[in-house]
Amino acid sequence: MTTLAADREIESLMSLHPKGFDLSLDRISRLLERLGNPQDHLPPVIHIAGTNGKGSCAAFSRALLEASGHHVHVHTSPHLVNWHERYRLAADGGGRLVEDKVFADAIARVAKANEGQKITVFEILTAVTFLLFSEHPADAVIIEVGLGGRFDATNVISDPAVSVIMPVSLDHESFLGDRVELIAAEKAGIIKGGCPVVIGAQESETALQVLIETAERLDCPAFVYGQDFLAFEENGRMVYQDEDGLMDLSPPRLPGRHQFANAAAAIAAVKAAGFEISHRVADKAMANVTWPGRMQKLPQGRLTELAPKGADIWLDGGHNPGAGVVVAEALAEQEEKNPRPLFLISGMINTKDQSGYFSAFKGLVRHVYTVPVSLSEASVPNDELAIRAVEAGLSAEPVSSVANALMLLRDTWDGPPPRILISGSLYLAGAVLAENGTPPV
């Protein structure tokens, strides 16, 4: 396989700079100043933070804006297969992943501007985001926070068109705090004085209160799910409601009831950012939205051929208890409509609450096959992960790979075509898409 030029540039950076996160804005601000502060020369920015649902909100926002005929840049993280997935540049007919030559050139220029100063690779790649987005024309920019909010490298945006806080729950406790109100305060760090704020559906009243109080203290127009806007299912349709009235829409293409709330947050955010959203546009966006690796029906490929005949295979990169709950609910909804025996193939890393994730599937999953996450040094050994699943009340056994799990299920299951969920880590989701031969485009 040919190594892409941008990959070579990133590998070089990895050898020079520390891995991981170093939460501070000093280094990124210094670097951006050397680059001419490209973050100050962007179209209207939709800045999205939260524990779960950030990527879905970004996907819905992009779909809404592109359905309106707007040109949109999108930055998301992490990627699944290729680094290029993090940078989608505006184009006629819909955005395209950044071309390798353009990407590699931007990385090289940012690295040169840094002059070997201490910095993390994530900060360099965030600077690349702002450089690319400032040099290519667009009508809007969507930027997903990497980690937290207050000290995330993306939080040098001083005047966003709207800040969005999606559902907040426990995750990355070693960086953000071990109580949901502490995590909410970190996420609220992207809220800027006087700028509109959209607060998505929050399970925690404590988190919601922190977010509302921050918006009030900074004198921000705030739009709160359940108070100022909402969405619900009615007769198989999605109904969105805000102060402007009701919209009767096609159900979101992304499966799961939680996507109604994610879609609603995106509609509210795009409107708060100053863009008009017609009924026709919103309906088109719901039908066309895509978001790889998040409750994605696994496309036909090399891995799907190993599964039991007629199997219904889903892929999801959710990796914390909150994500487990929404995925389990989505599968329970599918079970109501089209009953099938459900099997789980899961790999996780050691910074996540494995038992908490598995507990969401108790009573729903027949059996769990635990696998190593080959792309992460932090992978939980598959035998240890099986113990965590058993502790959560599930039947489980370790298997050496996703491919072997699918073949084992094919050779031992003699019931009706099963439903299979492959989940527990974005690293795992990326590896599955690569091995299947169906990377994001």
UniProtKB/TrEMBL annotation:
Keywords: ATP-binding, Ligase, Magnesium, Metal-binding, Nucleotide-binding
Segments forming domain Mur ligase central: 48-270
Species per Swiss-Prot/TrEMBL record: Mesorhizobium onobrychidis
Pfam families per UniProt: Mur_ligase_M
Keyword Magnesium set for record: yes
Superkingdom classification of source: Bacteria
Cross-referenced Gene3D superfamilies: Mur ligase, C-terminal domain (3.90.190.20), Mur-like, catalytic domain (3.40.1190.10)
Family per record: Belongs to the folylpolyglutamate synthase family.
Keyword Ligase: yes
Annotated protein name in UniProt: Bifunctional folylpolyglutamate synthase/dihydrofolate synthase
